[in-house]
Design brief:
Layout: E1 7-12, H1 20-33, E2 38-43, H2 45-48, H3 55-71, E3 80-83, H4 89-98, H5 103-107, H6 110-118, H7 125-128, H8 130-140, E4 145-147, H9 153-170, E5 178-180, H10 215-223, H11 240-253, H12 257-263, H13 269-295, H14 298-327
Parallel strand pairs: 1-2, 2-3, 4-5
Bound molecules: adenosine-5'-triphosphate and L-tryptophanamide.
Adenosine-5'-triphosphate binds next to helix 1.
């Protein structure tokens, strides 16, 4: 608890351009939750280097992501929006937690299996211990709730296991966090292969809608989206392409899938795809406008970065000192 409010922590990697999946599955929920909780929203640049990055590009992307958090509606005066690499407690706690995490547990992580298959030339130790750094992120702030998409739930489970293991040895040090899945949009699929999640690292640009795509590009990508030959707008696992488009439309308009089926009964996929495209354009337009506005205000963003890193550091250090004391590191002399 901070000032009587429960704590929320979440983060995104500064790799690639954000997609509609990131927005509907994560960012949009963050905005709706930000009044109720004391929130920490991190740009997890330390996680990004588990895959080789170009330095200039990483710096640029991290800044763009932080700006996007604000543009999506997170007020940096109320929410702690900051870079992971500006708060050294993340890496320090991750080291400690590494010593309370088993190889067998990490071996079961599907993201590690997927990413190491994809980057077979660089299966580094950081990629393997990625979930431990994620656990450190969450536990440092004693987070009660962690909004993420379905793909990150396994990492949240291991975070809870590590925290419970630590608490069972040293007493109640960490709050045990709960994952939070949004009701709609928790798993947006690729527009080109609806059995795969929409991902910012997909090589095919037509598979994803990027948050900064212009309206024409968005409409074109939906027009090309893979569906089926049923010619019927139905919310069923047998029509994964159509189901995904219904999910997107539902998340953008607030309508229910059954109502969407009725809305398009007897109509072709052409009309349906156009409506989905338009709903996405109207959701993204205000975010894009605000990005343009904020990008001109360098000193405001700089000031927020500094102020929020100090705030995050304060809470992180508080937990870290407690952990260091519990495990037997010598106390600092004041
Ligand atoms: P990468 O392709 O680089 O692994 P990603 O697109 O999966 O990236 P992350 O940075 O791993 O994105 O995820 C940021 C947040 O967005 C997480 O909370 C994740 O659960 C959510 N998310 C990512 N992809 C989707 C998706 N297709 N649908 C819903 N939520 C998603
Ligand atoms: N692993 C997450 C990003 C992430 C995160 C976190 C999410 C890093 N640390 C802490 C929630 C809480 C991802 O790939 N989306």
């Amino acid at each position: 608890m901070i000032d009587g409010k429960k704590v929320l922590f979440s983060g995104m990697q500064a790799t690639g351009n954000l997609t509609l999946g990131n927005y509907l599955g994560a960012l949009k929920n963050w905005v709706t939750m930000s009044d109720e909780y004391e929130c920490f929203y991190c740009v997890v640049d330390e996680h990004s280097i588990t895959i080789r990055q170009d330095p200039a590009e990483l710096r640029k992307r991290a800044r763009a992501l932080l700006t996007l958090y604000i543009a999506a509606g997170l007020d940096p005066e109320k929410n702690c929006i900051y870079y992971q690499s500006h708060v050294s407690g993340h890496a320090e706690l991750a080291w400690i937690l590494n010593c309370y995490t088993y190889m067998g547990e990490l071996n079961r992580m599907t993201q590690f299996k997927d990413k190491s298959a994809k980057h077979a030339d660089n299966i580094n130790a950081g990629l393997f211990t990625y979930p431990v750094l994620m656990a450190a992120d969450i536990l440092l702030y004693q987070a009660d709730v962690v909004p993420v998409g379905i793909d990150q739930m396994q990492h949240l489970e291991i975070t809870r296991d590590i925290a419970q293991r630590f608490n069972s040895i040293y007493g109640d040090v960490f709050t045990i966090p709960e994952g939070y899945l949004g009701k709609v949009g928790a798993k947006i699929m690729s527009l080109q292969d609806p059995t795969k999640k929409m991902s910012k690292s997909d090589e095919n640009p037509n598979a994803s809608i990027y948050l900064m795509d212009d309206p024409d590009t968005i409409m074109r990508k939906f027009k090309r989206a893979v569906t089926d030959s049923e010619a019927c707008v139905r919310y069923t696992d047998e029509q994964p392409g159509v189901k995904n488009l219904i999910d997107i439309y539902a998340a953008c308009t607030g309508k229910l899938p059954t109502d969407i089926e009725h809305e398009f009964s007897g109509k072709g996929y052409g009309d349906f795809k156009e409506a989905v495209g338009e709903s996405v354009v109207s959701v993204l337009k205000p975010v894009q406008d605000r990005v343009a506005q904020l990008s001109n205000d360098k000193s405001y963003i700089d000031q927020m970065i500094k102020k929020n890193a100090e705030k995050a550091d304060y809470y992180a250090t508080k937990t870290l000192r407690k952990v260091q004391h519990k495990i037997g590191f010598p106390d600092r002399i004041r």
